[in-house]
């Protein structure tokens, strides 16, 4: 991947919602607890498996702003916003994918998630690289957010993107600075 592609992926992950302060705080807390702050220590597969909230953020980002808008004849982005499938569908909330068995808040998700959410498609047509993609996204997010604090320049500015076959962000202004411990 080029630096430009990596930066694009970071911004894609950030752009899932504008109320990211608590999400970023909780994500940083998970990275600190599981990975520590020794940046020279390699991240292990076991540690990546433990990043459950990070995986929930990845899933919610995709649900909120799917990369592929159409799958076959289905308008996928519409399924991701259906009120009869999702609790508060317009809200960016990774908790809908994080330990939902332990709460009754996300009853719709418990009932419909198998048929209404397919990050890499499902069944016999599921993407063979889906597990690798999740591992790579966890690694990318943890590698960057452990070292840097990233925030949008204007939290209230609308995202400048368009959706056709793929969702593309035209521009996104962000501040990137070293993280303080």
TrEMBL record:
Cofactor(s) listed: heme
Superkingdom per UniProt: Eukaryota
Any Pfam family hit: p450
Name of the protein this chain belongs to: Cytochrome P450
Family recorded in the similarity comment: Belongs to the cytochrome P450 family.
PANTHER family: CYTOCHROME P450, CYTOCHROME P450 12A4, MITOCHONDRIAL-RELATED
Keyword terms of this UniProt record: Heme, Iron, Metal-binding
Keyword Iron: yes
Residues noted as binding heme in the record, renumbered to the chain: 127
Native source organism of the sequence: Rhizophagus clarus
GO molecular function, one term: iron ion binding
CDD domains cross-referenced by the UniProt entry: cytochrome_P450
Signal peptide location: none
